[in-house]
Every structure is written in structure tokens, then in C-alpha cells.
Amino acid sequence: MSEKWELTRHACRVCFGRVLIREEDSETVVRCADCGLQVQGEIQALCSCGAQLKTGRKAGFKCEQNE
User: By residue range, what is the domain housing residue 40?
Assistant: First the structure.
């Protein structure tokens, strides 16, 4: 198990905090650095760019680095 979290270019869909990622027991763990919400699996499960409206349509957010 790795104790090292890596910063990503993504933002949490709950609080827009920075999303962290690490490998844990051959599983990908994704966590928000601000609110602490954590999920296992793909980054889109927590990231704003995977957010959907109640209708199921994509919300239109896209995470990109600010230059």
C-alpha cells in the first residue's frame, strides 16, 4: 500500500477542491483534498468533469490547468 497521494488536474464535483489519486492494493483510490470524499475506481466518479444533471445529461464541466 502506498501512502503517497498524487495531485491531479481535476476538481471535486462536491466542493471543487483538488482531487488526489493513489494506488492501494491494486485498486485506484480517488480523494478530495478539501472535503475528504473518497471513492475507489475511475477519477470521473469524483471529478467535476464527470458530473451529470438530474436528467442524466453531462453538466458540461471540463477540468483543465489554469495557465
Answer: 6-50
